[in-house]
Amino acid sequence: MNRVIAALPVDARPAVRSQVRAMVACAGWQLRCPAVSALGYFRAPADRDALAQWLFDEGAAADAFVLSLDMLVYGGLVPSRFVPDTLPALLQRLTVIEALKARWPHKPVFAFAATMRISNNDVADEEKPYWAQHGKALWLWSYHGDHAAVTGDAASARLAAEAGASIPSGVLADYFSTRQRNFEVTRRALRLVGRGTIDRLVLPQDDTAAWGLNIAERRALQSEVAKQGLQDRVAIYPGADEVLHTLCARLVSQQEGWRPLRVALAPSDPARIGGLHALYEDRPVLQSVASQVQAVGAVLTDDRAFTDAGADADACSSDGASADVLLALHTQGTAQGDWALQRALPQAVPPAAAWFRQLTDWQRSGRALLLADLAYANGADPDLLLHLGTRHQPGALPLPQAYAGWNTASNSLGSVLAQAVLAQGRWHEAPAQEALALRLLEDGQYQSVLRQVLRRSLQNSIDGCSAAPAGLLAAARAAVIAPANAWAAAHELKYRVKDVALPWGRTFEIDLQLEPAR
Description:
Layout: E1 4-8, H1 18-25, E2 30-32, H2 48-59, E3 64-68, H3 69-74, H4 87-93, H5 95-103, E4 109-112, H6 131-151, H7 154-165, H8 169-194, E5 200-205, H9 213-228, E6 234-238, H10 243-256, E7 262-267, H11 285-295, E8 299-300, E9 325-330, E10 337-338, H12 353-364, E11 368-373, E12 376-377, H13 382-385, E13 402-404, H14 409-423, H15 430-457, H16 469-490, E14 495-501, E15 511-516
Parallel strand pairs: 1-2, 1-3, 3-4, 4-5, 5-6, 7-8, 7-9, 9-11, 10-12, 11-13
Antiparallel strand pairs: 14-15
Helix pairs in contact: 1-15, 6-7, 6-9, 8-9, 10-14, 11-14, 15-16
């Protein structure tokens, strides 16, 4: 029988629930999650009492637990930013974990809780209502206030004061109070690690920048982790939506007794990757690579790339002689484009032919190739995908064993590395082939190309929330299914799109429902 993980995802979106279930199946394990209807909807929180009961109902058959504390405590990642519950009421929900551990003390409990993000726009869809009027000012107040506090920079102090003066005092007080409440919940989770109630805790930084209240919280949490001696059980790094992937990969690897996967790196732009800071993250992308490799329990065959941000080609490449997999890092220059916000790629630095030869030679050696497409946030680089072909096309880069190019750099890195851990030795089996097809079609076709086609058809450059649900879904089917399947057939994917859905009634996310190719 398959071994079982009982899990609470951050919400019901496919990327954080059904897609992770499929990935875990690559290793012959079963990931059990509550039904979609039990996980809330967008801003509406889940029934947290029902979720607690679900955990106890599933616990007897489970071998381990992986829990989003945002779902358990607040009812979801988005609701965590505005549910009105008091701190004592929220802390009481953490006692569910203590009860689980008391009943099944030998079953590992892995957990994760995102540091509350600070969005830098006047959009309140996923925030408190006042974000629509004061979002940008709140971000500036937070960013420059933290920068000034740490560095003493006078210009930042002035900008923080100007931004703060434009925000009503009641808004500032409410926002700071909400952050402090959530921060105290996270501190209580750290105590549960110290007591052995939580075996591993990840505190990802959701959509962050180099400075801000969330970064001040990160520094405080890192200090507390060091003070309590929890560095081997608590990890703090950029990310959010990929954490269920990486924790499941690490858990399965540990439970199966596998040796750590050895990862070599192959950057497409080695001269510049050391200076690349990915969008929505607070550190050089090479440090994010190191964090995600560690997150899945893997090791780098050459870690010289992470000693500083100015690494050169020799420092961030490895010949891979001792590696199990090659992680190809595709970037262009020292900044990302962004498909969701229609920001063009700032620099065009196409990969050299030698990089494609390196990847092709690696595949010919019989070892797995992982491709992390990081040139853009929120989608793939279409120019890179032009080089992907089939075994019948001379000179084309054959399909990798795993691919990702979705949302943030850490989302892509974490998911592709989790796939590598969970599917090792089973790359040709159906679950791994379906996972590859999904990422190529969702990241490579929908996010970077077809989402723009869909939005143009709706005469909306950013999203389609104003369209009626039935019309929006019909437009999505018309824009996506046929061209996605044409691409899938041309590249000999084992799966094709049967239907699509829009989980939150907008174009940012999509649910590509696949079926075996005929």
